[in-house]
Amino acid sequence: MRSLPRAAILGGAFAFVLVACGSRSALVDGEVDVVVNPDGQTSDVFHPDAPFQSDAPKDAPHDGPLFEGGPLDVQVDCNEPTYCDPRDPGYVYECGVRVFQCSSLEECKEGKCVNPCVDTLGEDTSNGCEFYANEVDVTNATDQSAKGACFAVFIVNQWKTGEPAKIQVDRGGTILPIAQFARIPAGTGTSITYTPYDDSTGLAKDQIAILFLSRDPNAVNNGSTSPGALAGCPAGVTPAILADSGITGTGVGSAFHIKTNVPVVGYQIYPYGGGRARVTSATLLLPTNVWGTNYVAANAYARSTALGTDSDSAGTLAIIAQADNTHVTINPVADIVPGGSLAGTTAGTPVTYTIDKGEYLQFTQNVELTGSAVQSDNPVAIVGGNTLMDVPVTQGMRADAAQQMLPPVEALGNEYVGVRYRSRVTNYHYSGPSEESVPWRIVGVVDGTTLTFDPPVAGAPSSVNARQLIEFNAPGPFVVTSQDSNHPFYFAQYMTGGFPFGPVEGTPPDDIGGGEGDPEFVNVITPSQYLSRYTFFTDPTYPETNLVVTRVKDASLGFPNVSLDCAGTLSGWTNIGSSGKYQFTRVDLSRDNFVGVGGCNNGVHTIVANFDGNPASPTPFFGVTVWGWGSGRTYSGTDEANPASTRWVSYGYPAGANITTLNNVVLNAH
User: What CA–CA distance (Å, rounded) separates 83 from 485?
Assistant: First the structure.
């Protein structure tokens, strides 16, 4: 602890430079001299060793801060410790006054400036400085395969200081030439262009870089009009790996390792290319600093009963290590079928595997492992998915792959708000109900977890036990709550298959009509993990993009205003349930044939909340889920290999989340 200066005599003149009658942890390094003031009182003068700058790790990309930090020329007459104001994170405060400015690589935490990419590798949110991305396993079916298609990761710089993000990617310890495969997208739909990423200047604030990580040049379109059409990476882009970076079936793979000098948001999508890629899915990536050592596993969905062979549809689960010699124990709810170098086990019999940094275990099999307990001795990430799922499992018209990076048990909530994407029945040929009823899934963590729905949902479960999977259908919206925070559960939402939604071009059930979207699986974020600001990316290659926004009522100030950069303050809010705690609205960015809505369109967007601009207000909280899907209105022909065709595809992911500890529950795998 260091006493900071009260006053200094500079050149014989009395000048206040900084008064802090408390103490701080070392914000800067230097020496303290004792001087005598004109009134006879003594005080300390602090002499810094050098301009303040945090050291970045040697293996992290950095060029130093855009601007330096340091003490401010202010007087504070008090005897209190320094602290942080979350509304003004670039400064250290004391007695209501800014006393120290952090550098552009830092933010105030616990009364001092810290570099999140050095000290914590993130902000305990989905904003982080280190990520791992693995190409999800997808179907091998001859007329559906997306194996070897373009695999991409989106990186969004929303670091508040304006510091450019420097990005480094390696795989297996080999640093990859980022200028070769990183691009800055501009435009929308078929007019999108890609500008090379300049590593010397980095990624500007609120800008996105697309990292094209792999594409197998030997994987080609099968030449049919089926959704098996493969999309390559954009012309002129050489991906980081000229091969299929994923593995097929059960075994051990190698993930891409992404590091930055400031916290960023990451999403991965496979295959890249929107409608013409087919078998599409995406997920929000969780940075390594919020990974856990205890999970309840969740595959995307059950194996389709409408598809013919084992290779068509299967659950898949990937477990990624960030440290060498990581031991992962799984207590499965079903038999683990051996594959590759991985041994199997029977249901209820724990098995332990060992993997090193950047490696991942992959389990792809017909019987779901949803509900299995997973524990590890080092933090890991888990991605749940399906190689090709039909939702419902009996609908065989079309299918999509799925993937979501799962939160650890400690970050699961006991209350969730279920709001579906905008109904696809509007203005389209459809003879069913005016609102879609879609599947929702709950996976229990603690025995005897009671569930309450507001408003009541017909057919919904009243309780769930540890490792138990329950599925029900409902149009929403609703709130589902357990008895307390130590009865958390996992909650997922779904989009159903694209038939019968969409314009009629033939006589159903042929594959000419329908195709408005297709199956997708998305984590539902508990309101306890909502943020107050999001910068996110919507894929310009999808013609239909819909945001679902849910806001939380403050006990004193009511509901916050939520503003989207392209639309202004949002309206059309609807109450959810009888508690009065939550409201939702939906916002279209793009409709039909890539037509922007109300000044909005696909691309990079920022959405923020506030209480009438009052700086003394508490932090507002709201959640955002991004949905994108294809449309039959983008192409009037029947050749689905045509790039203009975007039917039978969808993607979805939460725009971000606060990944903090919400419970002390352990789901034992041993």
Answer: 29
Is 293:378 a contact under the CB 8 Å cutoff? yes
Residue of 527, 538, 517, 427 lying closest to 477 (CA atoms): 527
Bond into 461 cis (ω within 30): no
Whole-number Å distance between alpha carbons of 304 and 393? 4
Phi, psi of 158 (to 5 degrees): -120, 25
- Decide: 604 and 207 in contact? Cβ < 8 Å: yes
Angle at 132 between CA 131 and CA 133, to 5 degrees: 120
What six digits make up the tokens of 177? 């030439």
* Averaged pLDDT score across all residues of the chain: 84
- Cα-based angle 26, 27, 33 (whole degrees, multiple of 5): 70
Q: What span, in angstroms and rounded, lies between the C-alpha atoms of 608 and 612?
A: 12
d(CA 536, CA 266): 9
Task: Look up residue 165 and give its two tokens.
Answer: 């993000």
Q: How far apart are CA 380 and CA 360, in angstroms?
A: 9
292-339 tens-digit pLDDT: 999 999 999 888 887 655 447 889 999 999 999 999 999 999 999 999
Query: Which segments of 491-549 does DSSP mark as H helices, in order?
Result: none
DSSP, residue by residue, 325-384: TEEEEEE-SSPBPPBTTB--B-TT--EEEEE-TTEEEEEEESS--TT-EEEEEEEEEEEE
Q: What is the pLDDT of residues 22-53, one digit of tens each?
A: 322 333 333 434 434 434 444 443 333 333 33
Which residue, 531, 613, 598, 525, is CA-closest to 565?
Answer: 598
Instruction: pLDDT band for 435, please (50, 70, 90 cuts).
Output: confident
DSSP 153-201: EEEE---TT-PPBPEEEEETTEEP-HHHHEEEEES-GGG-EEEEP-TTT
Tell me which DSSP letter residue 670 carries.
-
Answer yes or no: is pLDDT of 123 > 90: no
Q: How far is CA 321 from the centre of its chain?
A: 18
Beta strands in 436-510 (DSSP E): 438-444, 449-450, 452-454, 463-464, 469-474, 478-481, 489-495
For residue 387, how far is the Cα from the chain centroid?
A: 20
Query: What does the angle CA 379 – CA 90 – CA 114 come to, to the nearest 5 degrees?
Result: 40
**Cβ-based burial of 418 (10 A; exposed 0-12, middle 13-18, buried ≥19):** buried
Please state, in angstroms and rounded to a whole number, the distance separating the CA atoms of residues 197 and 571.
Answer: 37
Instruction: Choose the weakest-confidence range: 144-158, 384-398, 475-489, 643-657.
Output: 384-398
